[in-house]
Amino acid sequence: MIRWLPRAWLMLIYGLLYVPIAVLVVFSFNDSRSGYTWGGLSLRWYETLFNNHAMVEAMWNSLWLALSAATVSTLIGGLTALALHRYRFRGKRVLNGMLFVVMMSPEIVLAISLLALFLLVGIQLGYVSLLLAHVTFCLPFVVITVMARLSGFDESLPEAARDLGASDFTMTRTVLIPVIMPALLAGWLLGFTLSLDDVVVSTFVSGPTYEILPLRIYSMVRVGLKPEVNALGTLLLVFSLVMLSLSQWILTRSKQ
Amino acid sequence: MPASGVSPTMSSIRQQPFGAAVLVLVWGWLLFLVLAPNLLVVGASVMTRDPGSFLSLPLNLDAYRQLMDPLYLDVFLHSLYMAAVTTLACLLIGYPFAWALSKVEKRRQLLLIFFLIVPFWTNSLVRTYALKLILATNGLINSALLSLGWIDEPVRMLYTEGAVIIGLVYLLLPFMILPLYSVFDDLREELVMASHDLGAGRFATFLHVIVPLTLPGVLAGVMLVLLPAMGLFFVPDILGGSRNLLVGNVIKNQFLDARNWPFGAAASIVLTLTMAVLMLAHRISKQRIGEEGSA
Amino acid sequence: MRAGPMKQTLLSLSNLTKQFGGKTVLDSLDLDIYDGEFITLLGPSGCGKTTLLRLIAGFEQPDCGSISLSGVDLTGTPPEGRPLNTVFQHYALFPHMSVFDNVAYGLKMEKRPPDEIRDRVEEALAMVQLQDYARRKPQQLSGGQQQRVAIARAVVKRPRLLLLDEPLSALDYKLRRTMQVELKRLQRELGITFVFVTHDQEEALSMSDRVVVLKDGVVQQLGTPREVYERPANLFTARFVGETNFFPGNVDAVNDGDIIVDVFGLKRTLRKPDFELHPGQAVHVLLRPEDIRVLEPTDEQGLAGRIVERNYKGSTLDSVIHLDDGTEVLASEFFDEDDPAFDYRLGEPVRVSWVDGWEWLLPEESSNASVGSLTDDV
Fold it and tell me: What main location does UniProt list (chain A) (predicted)?
């Protein structure tokens, strides 16, 4: 095999992955109205973006939703991972399997099933329905992240704590939680991003009273070109980069 | 999801009120928000469409029959075709990519994987929109080709089948690469060396050793790409125009616009069954090479 | 196995050099391997032994030099084209294939007819006593069984040469001893040349016809196990192979057949060594622990010291003795049940001596500064 070929392939694909993102960032500073031609540097689209009240409100709604969905799923997911790791109980494999199925399911299948449930039970489509839906699809990711951390964990530590007189609850609080903290944080960040990015599920389970960012963007990009989307995309990219770097930093630092 | 090994220190749940409370919570959540809704969808698929309350009796298989209607069957097959091409493209790009990635020195690998998941953490709608800027009739590719004088008229790229496939490949490629990278990372160089040592050339080694050992990654990648490639309805909405629909678009239209729930539900069950088949294949392929890899 | 007087060279390595990232791993190495012998490459980790094996197998290409088998140059030939096979350190069994398919793999690559493949695989499995395990997957076997599958897979192709890369290192002590005997038996029965890599000197001494001691990519010594153990070529070999006492000596006089050396003020008449000597020269007097005699303190000869450690080893009794000047001496004596006075208490004064002629002399090595530590348990 030619030695440089694998490297060249890596570089080519990385290039292609980043071209659209680069275009987005560059065009967000474009002064031209047409959207395709370069008209000089400008911050006008950022201005337009922040003057759009509906957009700003959707942004706040989305942030609040992502914050709460990530927090709830981290709480439930973290505890579930602990239970899966620590206890022997019937139906463990079923529970594991169910979480796996949720993770692999096409989003659209989850979306319509939740819509059917909410309408049947009479949960109004809005913040609550969105929260329940987002927690559901974030949950398996948190469980996986925390389980991965626990699998490399010294089993004698909990026993030592119990031996020294800690109750099960105290041991969990003083030994296990600190150990899985980095994984919990990483899981939280992942959940936050998944929630912020979700289009498919949100399309089905949101109502007119609670508009969130992805749906706002969706309605904007379906027809024609809206240059302020470039500005918004750039902001979201920077935000994701910060979040992801944070999560990687937490995970790698805790390994040392 | 890995089933956790039974360690001798595991205690039974019966003596642990705290653990029991956690389990009640998560089981409750999954039963109410995963199992019950999915049973509802199965139920809906065999009921009759009702304009007022979405669904009504009698039970029948009309929805499934409607799936066979040439009009919808065409849409389904076209969607399946686009998803299959997307998956194949991801595999053809991703397989050598993951292989090459696993050969890079370890320190750089981490950085490269980081840059692979940055797009995945970035809003997918916005990224799809960026493709529109590139592919449009007066977009970047056409402008570039025109100014270079390679073409005289803009080429129509947006609102074609190709644009939808490009969009899907772009969004889903990391989902193919990551499981493939993971199997290549686990593939022990010693096995490849052993194959050569026993007289196998490059091609025979690829066929008899590398392919079977990376098959679980291929199937995981296929599963992670093929199913979303049928469901991501916003990609054709933005890039595909009205003729290049996905199953996801059909389900969405039937549920949200046409209010034909039985039909939408039946379509979604077809997707779920596809997933079940793929998951089974993945499981079998993993068992074949021994879940622990090799001792 | 004793190689007869007609030693025919099978594999010839000449001037082999290999560098990784500017670091020389093998330095113009020459070596002839005879047909049918069991030769061991012995050395500490990083000495180049595994690299040498990989060069022979064809997984690496030498920077310069050549490898030839029965006069045919193999240097540019890929691994799949070389009539030799490898038993890998971690066995490298294909996890997706049964034991049978693993062993059959090499024959399938030769496009042998199915009947022949079946017969030869069954024969190979019978040879390693695994005929009942043909349908199992490798991960269903124990470590020792996997090891034997790996051997069967390599020898089924009837190679001229078998390369074994620390094949026993993953096994526990008892199993390792069993496999050592079994490997020797196989090598005798098959008549295949074995090139065995290990860092375990005991293994090397007990199994090989010849041992190659390697350090920093350079051959330190090449000889029979007995030569390497009893007549080490330099301080490194002496230290690496077995335990050794080093006494500093000073040449007093050189006669025709013998020399007189001053060891701790003791004048001993010793056999004249191969290298050039002149009076006043400093030498090392090497004595294996089993060559040391521990004598009663009342004895006239030997050096005074006292016992600081006693270890009962079953057949031998090992002692650590501190001489009066602080030098540590290891002694290993055969246990004599009938001698009530055999045992010494800790702290008891003794005298240390040896039988003249059992010692081995090495010249002072200017480059080697680490003579201070007299016993080196590698």
Answer: membrane
